[in-house]
Amino acid sequence: MQLTGKQKRYLRSQANTLSPIFSIGKAGASEEWLAEVEKALAKRELIKVNVQQGSELSAKELAAFIEAKSNITVAQVIGKTVLLYEEAKDEKYVKYSLEINKLA
Fold first, then answer.
1. Distance CA 7, CA 102 (A)
2. Which of 22, 60, 86, 89 has fewest C-beta within 10 Å?
3. How large a percentage of the chain has pLDDT more than 70?
């Protein structure tokens, strides 16, 4: 999903208070790790991922890996943090999607 500037600004404002729930370290990113991220996004829609100092991947490389291997949208890469968004498929977990669709 391609986000507009307004949609990205909205997501960044909502993520301001979020803490990273995933980290990437020396082991790097794998298909299994990405599957866990997708499970978390199915229930949260918006999460932050932290790239640790010892990681061989940069935040931009991680963002490229995620976008290439999944339908997850990278809303922002800032420093060592990557902000990820994916619209929830289950209605009870919809939190940000309604506003995102209004801003389209």
1. 9
2. 89
3. 100
